[in-house]
Amino acid sequence: MAVLMEIEFPGVTTQQYDDVDRRVGARSGQPPEGLLFHTAMVTETGLRVIDLWESTDAFQDFFARLQPVVKELGYSEPSAPPKFTEVHYHFERPQSVGT
Question: What's the total number of domains in the chain?
Answer without folding.
Answer: 1
